[in-house]
Amino acid sequence: MGRRNPGLRANYPVIWDYDDLSQIEIGSEVDIGAFSELAVRAKSSLSSTPGRLVIGDRTQIGSGCNIRACGGTISIGRNCLIAQHVSLVAANHEYRAGAVYRDLPWDAARHGVTMGDNVWLGAGVTVLPGARIGDNAIVAAGAVVIENIPANEIWGRIPAEKLKAIR
User: Fold this and answer.
1) pLDDT score recorded for residue 6
2) What pLDDT, on the 0 to 100 scale, is given for residue 117?
3) Cα dihedral angle (68, 9, 34, 87), rounded to 10 degrees?
4) pLDDT tens by residue, 35-71
5) What is the pLDDT at residue 3?
6) DSSP for residue 21
7) In sequence order, what are the residues at sequence separation of 6 or more whose Cβ sits closer than 8 angstroms to the Cβ of residue 162?
8) For this structure, is 93 an active site residue?
9) Alpha-carbon span 90 to 79, nearest angstrom
10) pLDDT digits (tens, 9 = 90+) for 34-45
11) Which residue among 63, 93, 123, 144 is the active-site one?
12) Which domains does the chain possess?
């Protein structure tokens, strides 16, 4: 990964799990913390939506992060701060009574994660499929994002809710 992205600093060990390198786009001066796992699956028997990962310039991803761009696109803007142990999930399984969940396809109605520029995710944040986070937003540590967060707002709690505007 480093040869393809000379400005990338991935602190050993980082797990890269992908099936198509062309579905990964990394900007310059990106820093990925040790013990992070980035999974990108362009093809899956569970989804017709390809996985794709885009990371903007000068974004920092803390240690122990789990980024799963399978069954949807995860797009991270420029100058973002992603603290340690953050999870970004592009797709979840459907569910039905009496079914084996792991065998069900991924939900095609809610997929992907989009983060604008200059977004700060605190430690342990989880961002679930379909969520969009606007420019200059902050998500407090431990929050679970299940919906859209407008630009210039601070959100926290489970599920995440608006705490205040950034002025």
Assistant:
1) 78
2) 98
3) -30
4) 999 999 999 988 999 999 999 999 999 999 999 999 9
5) 79
6) G
7) 149, 153, 154, 155
8) yes
9) 21
10) 999 999 999 998
11) 93
12) 9-86+106-155 (2.160.10.10)
Write down the number of H helices and E strands in the chain.
Answer: 0, 19
Least Cα distance to 64 among 92, 83, 39, 80 occurs for 83
115 touches 77 (CB < 8 A): yes
**How many CA atoms within 13 Å lie on the side-chain side of 123?**
4
* Amino acid symbol at 31: D
pTM score: 0.95
Q: Which DSSP string corresponds to 152-164?
A: TEEEETTTTEEEE
By three-state DSSP, how is residue 94 classified? coil
Q: Which residues of the chain register pLDDT less than 70?
A: none
Q: How far apart are CA 31 and CA 151, in angstroms?
A: 24
64 vs 33: CA distance, rounded Å: 7
pLDDT of residue 34: 98
Both structure tokens of 141: 């540590």
CB under 8 Å, gap of 24 or more: what pairs does 94-102 form?
none
